């Protein structure tokens, strides 16, 4: 790792102020992705701001019947929360399908949203990558891109977002709450939180420099039956090839998809159709595939079909 | 060394590390001056207080030192192993404040004030932890490199099942029960290159049923 200085922030706003004071700084909470990248010198912050001690580790009901999840609630605790298991089961299911027990014990709600892609060319320092080094090119587009994006990608980047949790958050219409160095707060709908790569794939979210996530809030429960079906190259502890989050109730159905794009993918208009073929066709509209990853179109339709069959059973 | 036959694995490894150092010295000498300057630039060390296996420890560490390196290199608790150093293999698993984590993917300075249990704190050769005894009985290892991590992980994992924390294979999220498939899923963050998995599951099952 490159040398860095370290501080423990005393408050959320103080953390945001420190991030503005040190331009090449990073917040650190779970650290499971950041330290991995720092060891490879893909991330090279010169200052770390530890935000683990801000009291942002509680889950509480909101006045409108929803739930506010502190930014640093660990993935294990969020998946195991009684209210989440009962009313937002799709979120529990998504969380426990990601990473390992050890990692979920450390990884936080906010950090999960902010994790970087696992595109092998992002990790390979000997290859060009517009996300790692803007303007250097993309080795993935003409390379081994079997598990990379088929939707929303650009000529600059075909990376996917690796999170399972974020897919469930997208289905649940979560809002990402933040504070900046002036103490100004805002709540960003999850649909607008992650950006598509365009020609600036290194800018992955709408967060401004120094802006700190304080919570993720969920609207009141949808009811219905909850599913998260993930297809991956091994039975456990692997990133998705394709994943389908679904909540299906009396007269409504919602779907969000992982493994397909630079962000969790949801096409609301597709939720008005019936049957896996019609829904998948609408979801996959505009897909750009390569010979390596074209299988994801079929896999998306079939995984969705499996979820719909399970819902009918 | 008094007896030339009294060669431990540790002294042998230390000896070969020196040899390797000599072999790579010319490569280091060719390193550009500028990059050497960067890599040798020091950051201020920081005080870190840990309670490790019940004992208070006060360290002064570069903030880059991971919890794993603090345990191994500074406290000489070499039971926790460095496999991949990226949170993929689980050999470094320790228990911090009651929770299993990858000690390679966290900084020691982030754990000021925390309680850490390593394999050395679970049991001793004279008085094995039940999980250690079960691993021996069921032959839950071959080379043994992943074993300290497997055992720390197993002990904490049984606590997670007891606490009702669900997993990917839990059918009913509100009802968590021990099963071999639960163990397989929950232990997927601990890789065993020798593939002792069936025996590891047998060992864990025995401790669960005891």
Please specify the SSE layout and strand pairing:
The complex is a heterodimer of chains A (313) and B (210).
Chain A: E1 5-8, H1 12-21, E2 25-28, H2 34-39, E3 47-50, E4 59-61, E5 67-70, H3 75-80, H4 82-87, H5 89-96, H6 101-106, H7 109-114, H8 120-123, H9 165-171, E6 175-179, E7 185-189, H10 190-193, E8 212-218, E9 225-232, E10 240-249, E11 252-258, H11 276-283, H12 295-312
Parallel strand pairs in A: 1-3, 2-3
Antiparallel strand pairs in A: 4-5, 5-8, 6-7, 6-8, 9-10, 10-11
Helix pairs in contact in A: 5-9, 11-12
Chain B: H1 9-29, H2 33-40, E1 46-52, E2 55-61, H3 67-74, E3 93-96, E4 99-102, E5 115-117, H4 119-122, H5 130-137, H6 147-162, H7 180-186, H8 197-209
Parallel strand pairs in B: 1-5
Antiparallel strand pairs in B: 1-2, 3-4, 3-5
Helix pairs in contact in B: 5-8
Class computed from helices, strands and strand pairing of chain B? alpha+beta
The neighbouring-strand order within the major sheet of chain A is 4-5-8-6-7
Show unreliable segments of chain B: 1-7, 9-40
Count of DSSP-assigned helices of chain A: 12
Mean pLDDT of chain A: 98
| Strand proportion of chain B | 5-15%
- Listing every helix as H and every strand as E from the N terminus to the C terminus, the arrangement of chain A reads EHEHEEEHHHHHHHEEHEEEEHH
Helix content of chain A: 25-40%
The averaged pLDDT of chain B comes out at: 87
Question: What's the arrangement of strands in the largest beta sheet of chain B?
Answer: 2-1-5-3-4
Largest interface: A-B, 35 and 44 residues
What's the total number of strands of chain B? 5
Order of helices and strands of chain B: HHEEHEEEHHHHH
Q: Tell me the fraction of residues in β-strands of chain A, as a range.
A: 15-25%
The gross shape of chain A turns out to be globular
